[in-house]
Design goal:
The complex is a heterodimer of chains A (507) and B (374).
Chain A lengths: L2 E6 L5 H12 L3 E3 H10 L4 H9 L6 H25 L2 E5 L13 E6 L2 H12 L3 H23 L11 E4 L5 H12 L8 H22 L9 E5 L2 E6 L7 H9 L6 E6 L3 E6 L7 H13 L2 E8 L10 E5 L5 E6 L9 H7 L5 H10 L3 E8 L2 H4 L9 E6 L8 H19 L3 E3 H5 L6 H23 L1 H9 L6 H29 L4
Parallel strand pairs in A: 1-3, 1-4, 2-3, 4-5, 7-8, 9-10, 9-14, 10-13, 14-15
Antiparallel strand pairs in A: 6-7, 11-12, 11-13
Chain B lengths: L2 H6 L5 H21 L4 H10 L4 H25 L5 H28 L12 H31 L11 H9 L4 E4 L4 E4 H18 L2 H11 L5 H25 L5 H24 L2 H29 L9 H44 L5 E4 L2
Antiparallel strand pairs in B: 1-2
Helix pairs in contact in B: 2-3, 2-10, 2-11, 2-13, 3-4, 3-13, 4-10, 4-11, 5-6, 5-8, 5-10, 6-12, 8-9, 9-10, 11-13, 12-13
The chains are: A alpha/beta (507), B mainly alpha (374).
């Protein structure tokens, strides 16, 4: 059950190496193209996923689900071939990352001489030298983006591989021979533990694919794991209604002995400039966290520090409020001595609030960021698994109007980055936008507006006679009436319109 | 209605009244979303219903007064109105308007051909207005679309604001005195404000759509966020509308019924449009605005051969006038309705997203754990 995953760039001859190695091992050689074709046949829009890597703005929630589906499908496809054929060689983009947890996978990266690749592209695609070079670089960037987006790692990073083969001084045949030798080392032979890992990953991916394929359960993001036939499915809050179906789908997969369905512990991100345990905003956020069983992560944003010396700064705090590390933009990310750097600075009540949250069992740690407003969202990492972000009082050094606008823009940036709902603290407070006072106002003003409209439209001729008048002098009262009356009508009817839209929650 | 009153003010049936309400709704959406664009749509729309041009203009400008007041109030609550900048622009743009009126009157007095369409004056004046409209707005629309599309292609739409080239150029000039505007959070030279205000006023007075110039100028020259530019423009429009309403009312040319019917649609529309600026990404606002302006430019461009014929520059059969005029008006309506439809589409999508989020917030069940043997 040897598994070799060869990660290759375009025209780097990785495919030739993989095919030669497969021949030497006497096992099937599976390409990424074959995998993509199978996934496409199964209804996964791989093309759309590829496009979304280039155009992140089209990456919708639905595509995020298809991404998970595709990952699980790929793992299942490869491992079913392993179970069926014994050994396999796979070549594509960092395929080993699909098989995380299986220790004997041989992870190989094949690189080739750039000049060779350029001349190959020039010949095959009839391009000039510069265009061929640009093409290769563009494809490389796309692949790197894909790997980063799907696995959060850097494609070219040496730590990702057991072996990196540079073909500029080595033939394909010799590279394959070298890989054959390495694959025979004890480190890359199946062990009882890695065999169990194969079974577990395969079972988990089968369950995940089944959840994606069933209509009732296809709309959720799940974390599925398996251990000796016991499957654990962690589902999101919004899929709580489908808990029974999830259990039924998972239980119906061959090899599953038991199913544990657990609603996810969620994370709330709360962004604010100054925190205060005991404040109304604190109570609102904690109340929501209690309701959801969520941990609250605090992000203190000090946008006033955008002009401070030393550039943007990030201080990380532990769950109980203890400073952990400090990173400053201009020191190349070198961590400083935290007890002094993080401890002495004004933390805007962050540590006290974290300590209070920790006491309530709701602390998710915290960070203090000193950065320009537009750069603040960069410090929020996607993929942490936030369910909601709450934007509180920020940009306190600005005027009220600028603060309102900038807070809204920050919320918009956070939404773009995290792809989760972002609300303001005010929205948390205003659970019921439409209160009894609004109803009375609506009824009263509607009646006044109706009376004005009726008065004008039931006496059209008289009104127009008055407005048109007969001489310039007699029009002065008419002009005064128009000048004073029109804003009044606009105000009365405009308030009715605003209240109706408020009732419809278009606020 | 009879006599002079009957001549000035049309009979309004239920169908006609509903059409005016619809005109108001579409104009309101455009106005709330892009800070301008109501008048270009509503005035010719009312003229199509048989309202005399001057009454259509008078009723619309009166409507603009209250509508802009409510719109700027709403934008103000959202932090989108820079009153200080508005005050500076009002003073300078009034001077620009006077300059434009003087120039236009000279050309109108020069005559040339008969009257046509909403311009309502001589062919020389109409041709001048149309050419200024087409030239200026083409540049604005193309720049806006190019900028927005470039941002989209770079896939950085969320972070990518409008082009900052002009803003950087003017900020480098640092012409004393520099004035700080707290809401927009920008520092602008007084001289740049004077020039832009004068140009905005001149163009508003010439082609009647100050917002189409004022909003892009505030975005690209002052570096204002799009929402603040739209809000501040509405604030300006409130004063201009008030001034216009008073003048037209003194002339007895305001049909208050039309104004009130327009409000029935526009005040809903303007809130929906303003809501759109809050939930739609900046790049989309710029794209929609660019598309609407381009269609308006085409609409005006189509009418130019008529004026050239009237001036004797173009040998064209007068029977084609109706064709060109009809095509021009149709395109104008297409631009307004398309723009409003796009805005409504985005607003509806955002509204549904928000409702889902609200449901998640307030109706979420308590955490449950379920473990069972399979």
């Amino acid at each position: 059950m040897r598994i070799a995953c060869i990660s290759r760039g375009s025209y780097s001859r990785g495919k030739e190496v993989a095919e030669t190695l497969a021949k030497k091992l006497g096992c099937p050689c599976i390409s990424r193209e074959e995998l993509v074709e199978a996934a496409t046949k199964a209804g996964i829009r791989v093309g759309k996923l590829e496009t979304a890597v280039l155009k992140p703005h089209i990456f919708t929630e639905r595509l995020a689900l298809e991404k998970e589906h595709f990952q699980a499908f790929s793992a299942r496809y490869l491992l079913e071939r392993v179970v069926k054929d014994g050994d396999i060689v796979y070549h594509g983009r960092a395929g080993h990352l699909l098989l995380a947890g299986i220790s004997h996978v041989l992870r190989v990266r094949v690189v080739a001489d750039m000049e060779y690749r350029i001349s190959h592209v020039m010949r095959q695609m009839n391009l000039s030298y510069e265009k061929a070079k640009r093409y290769i670089e563009a494809v490389r960037e796309d692949h790197a983006r894909w790997v980063h987006m799907y696995y959060g790692v850097t494609w070219d990073e040496a730590q990702q591989y057991d072996l990196i083969l540079n073909l500029s001084q080595m033939s394909v045949e010799n590279a394959a021979a070298a890989l054959l030798t390495v694959s025979q080392l004890p480190d890359f032979q199946v062990t009882p533990a890695s065999r169990r890992a194969i079974d577990n990953v395969l079972l988990a991916s089968r369950v995940r694919v089944a959840l994606a394929e069933r209509e009732d359960t296809s709309g959720g993001q799940y974390t599925v794991s398996a251990s000796d036939g016991a499957v654990s499915v962690v589902y999101p809050l919004y899929q709580a209604h489908a808990a029974e179906e999830i259990r039924a789908v998972a239980g119906g997969i061959e090899g599953v002995r038991s199913v544990a369905c657990t609603q996810a512990q969620t994370n709330l991100l709360w962004v604010q400039e100054r925190f205060e345990p005991g404040s109304e905003a604190f109570r609102e956020v904690v109340s929501l966290a209690n309701k959801w069983g969520a941990a609250v992560e605090l992000l203190r944003l000090d946008a006033a520090g955008e002009n401070c010396e030393g550039g943007a700064q990030l201080v990380t705090y532990g769950a109980a409020g203890q400073p952990k590390d400090v990173k400053t933009e201009n020191n190349g990310g070198i961590e400083e001595d935290t007890s002094e750097a993080g401890g002495a600075a004004d933390d805007g009540g962050l540590r006290d609030t974290l300590a209070e949250l920790a006491r309530m069992g709701r602390s998710g740690g915290g960070r203090a960021v000193r950065a320009a407003p537009h750069a603040a969202a960069e410090f929020v990492k996607p993929g942490v698994g936030y369910t909601l972000a709450v934007v509180g009082e920020v940009f306190l050094d600005k005027g009220q109007a600028a603060r309102t606008r900038m807070s809204r823009e920050l919320a918009s940036l956070l939404h773009e980055r995290l792809r989760v709902p972002v609300v303001t603290v005010q929205e948390l407070k205003q659970r019921y936008l439409f209160n009894p006072k609004s109803i009375i106002n609506l009824l009263l003003l509607s009646a006044v507006a109706a009376a004005i409209y009726a008065a004008v439209f039931l006496n059209q001729e008289a009104v127009l006679d008055f407005l048109h008048g007969t001489g310039a002098g007699s029009r002065i009262p008419a002009a005064v009436c128009v000048f004073a009356g029109v804003p009044l009508i606009a105000y009365i009817y405009g308030t009715v319109a605003r209240l109706v839209l408020k009732l419809l929650r278009i606020e | 209605m009879s006599g002079e009153i009957g001549h000035m003010f049309i009979h309004l049936g239920v169908g006609g009244a509903l059409q005016v309400v619809l005109l108001g709704f579409i104009g309101g959406i455009l106005s709330g979303f892009i800070g301008s664009g109501g008048a270009f749509f509503m005035t010719p729309g009312m003229m199509n219903l048989g309202v005399p041009g001057v009454v259509a203009v008078g009723s619309n400008i009166t409507h603009k007064f209250g509508k802009a007041m409510m719109g700027s109030k709403k934008h103000g609550e959202m932090g989108n109105v820079d009153r200080k900048l508005g005050a500076f622009l009002i003073l300078t743009s009034f001077a620009g308007i006077r300059l434009a009126v003087w120039l236009n009157s000279m050309l109108f007095a020069g005559g040339g051909g008969g009257s046509h369409g909403e311009g309502g004056g001589g062919a020389t004046s109409n041709l001048y207005i149309s050419l200024v409209f087409v030239c200026i707005l083409s540049v604005v629309a193309v720049s806006m679309l190019r900028d927005a599309l470039k941002s989209r292609l770079k896939a950085e739409a969320a972070e990518h604001g409008p082009s900052q080239k002009l803003v950087e150029f003017f900020s480098r000039l640092r012409l004393f005195p520099m004035i700080y505007f707290p809401v927009a959070d920008v520092r602008i030279s007084l001289w740049v404000i004077l020039v832009v205000g004068l140009a905005t006023g001149y163009l508003a007075g010439t082609i009647g759509v100050g917002g189409f110039i004022g909003v892009p100028a505030m975005i690209y020259v002052f570096g204002l966020p799009t929402a603040v530019a739209a809000g501040t423009e509405l604030y300006l429009a409130m004063f201009m509308g008030g001034f216009g309403a008073l003048n037209y009312a003194l002339e007895g040319m305001v049909d208050i019924r039309l104004t009130m019917l327009l409000y029935l649609g526009s005040l809903f529309g303007i809130y929906i449009g303003a809501y759109g600026t809050k939930v739609v990404r900046e790049v989309v606002i710029r794209l929609v605005t660019g598309v609407i302006i381009i269609l308006c430019v085409l609409s005006r461009g189509i009418a130019i051969p008529i004026y050239l014929r009237e001036l004797g520059v173009l040998a064209m059969d007068p029977r084609y006038d109706a064709l060109f005029n009809g095509a021009s008006k149709a395109l104008l309506f297409v631009s307004g309705i398309t723009g409003a439809a796009i805005i409504l589409f985005y607003v509806t999508a955002a509204y549904r997203r928000r409702n889902r989020m609200q449901a998640l917030l307030w109706t979420a069940p308590r955490r449950t754990e379920a473990a069972a043997a399979g």
